């Protein structure tokens, strides 16, 4: 072969590799409303930035006649490129090749880019669309998964890892995405479960559809496995690009501060009016978030899961932050098992990647009852407490209204190394709400009053006394647990100034192998 022929051969090989499992299977993928592995990469990365690695890799299996069925690339497209000019590594599973199933060499390709991403200190994005372990490869495939899991674990908290689920993701394969920072699912075309409907039926007798067992709606609302449900792959890809604006490239860097055209001293007069007249009335805390962050831009995580707490990314004067806010509009903003788990994971992710935390508090306490106690609210609530106490990033807290009991301590209180703790004049910081307190403190006296009218009058007097004394921010401010009481409309400016001051903050935890987080 002369050089010209060799070059033509190379071009031919490349074309062959780019066809994956062939045109028929590509057409089937499109019919199902799915993009191919390569189309997804093209959509994700800056135009022309993709540099493919290991295009010519093929599997080494000789069982089940596999030696005669080889596809270049072996079912996964790997490489690197840029998103908004910043380098990322990516793997994209190709369902057109053996259903995107994972072989030994396929796993080696993913591990190779994960190792490189760790050396370079840049994010890894995995696009999952796979029938799981390649059945013909047996334990080699299981070993391949475990190699990936080990790398997910080592990369955790070092480089951002983002998983998009754009097709099947079943069996042990779900554990790689579960080990990453963010899981995003495309609605209707993706699912995740440890065991599918058929096995579920034979083991438990339960009849359930794929969608109801592990679709995007279920995982983004009930299980909390998925942080995002995207209406389409296109929307999912845009979300990933957007999300990376808030992450640094790795844990040794700070998130990038961008130019901001929203005035830092913009007053939000409507916030002076936002609190309902009665403290048991609901309002939407997201209105406060939209009012105070740059340009009202808030990227909410877990929007449909544990809605009593709101978490997500935003910017203050161009500086990325993680926001955690109790949501009075849902279950009165109470902390329960799911809310604690959701917020704890978010707080730890922000802390791992040097993303400051802004916490907006309006919490009546922990949700009472046997369901919560049997479910382990003690241990789950402790996760959030632990996460805040362990976090060393700048922590700015604004108490909007209620901050009662243990929940007060948990929500980034001063004693959990809260750096700047503000309160609105509407704040109520106390051991418990007035009603509960009066019933405990005056129980005997109340029982001794026979006349119901007299009893109600006495209760109202005591309630007023309690509210006047405790339902305000000044008891806490008096002890320095609150640094200042601020006017609601000025909240944006005060948070920005606090974050500016805290930008050089250094805090450390004692040396240890690792903490024993209450899992
Ligand atoms: C090898 C596979 C495969 C697999 C699919 N294919 N899954 N090949 N190993 N695991 C092949 C099919 O033979 C077919 O090849 C092509 O991929 C497309 O599959 P279809 O079944 O035609 O597609 P579809 O109807 O869309 O169904 C997709 C599917 C189904 C739901 C994913 O293929 C399926 O149930 N596959 C098996 C899933 C599974 O049980 N995997 C193991 C999970 S346990 P042709 O040549 O016809 O195109 C696991 C353990 C991981 O993964 C452990 C980690 C610790």
Notes on the structure:
Strands 10, 11, 12, 13, 14, 15, 16 and 17 form an 8-stranded mixed beta sheet that branches. A 7-stranded mixed beta sheet has the order 1-2-3-4-5-7-9, sandwiched between helices. A two-stranded parallel sheet has the order 6-8. The termini are far apart. The protein has 519 residues and is an alpha/beta fold. Hexanoyl-coenzyme A (HXC) binds next to α5 and β6.
What is shown here, in short?
With 519 residues, the protein is of the alpha/beta class. The protein has 20 helices and 17 strands. Helix 4 runs parallel beside helix 5, helix 12 runs parallel beside helix 14 and helix 16 crosses helix 18.
Report the CATH C-level class of the largest domain: Alpha Beta
Low-confidence stretches: none
Bound molecules: hexanoyl-coenzyme A
Largest sheet, if any?
Answer: 8 strands, mixed
The share of residues in helices is 25-40%
- What is the number of beta strands? 17
Count of individual domains = 3
Mean pLDDT: 96
**Roughly what fraction of the amino acids lie in strands?**
15-25%
Break the fold down into its secondary structure elements and pairings.
Elements: H1 3-18, H2 23-31, H3 37-44, E1 51-53, E2 76-83, E3 86-93, H4 104-120, E4 124-128, H5 139-155, E5 161-165, E6 168-170, H6 175-178, E7 182-186, E8 191-193, H7 197-204, H8 210-214, H9 216-223, E9 228-230, H10 233-243, H11 285-292, E10 299-301, E11 309-316, E12 319-326, H12 337-352, E13 357-363, H13 370-374, H14 377-390, E14 395-404, H15 405-410, E15 420-423, E16 428-430, H16 434-441, H17 443-448, H18 452-470, H19 474-478, E17 484-485, H20 491-502
Parallel strand pairs: 3-4, 4-5, 5-7, 6-8, 7-9, 12-13, 13-14, 14-15, 14-16, 15-17
Antiparallel strand pairs: 1-2, 2-3, 10-11, 11-12
Helix pairs in contact: 4-5, 12-14, 16-18
Hexanoyl-coenzyme A is lined by residues 98-99, 101, 131-135, 142, 145, 168, 170-173.
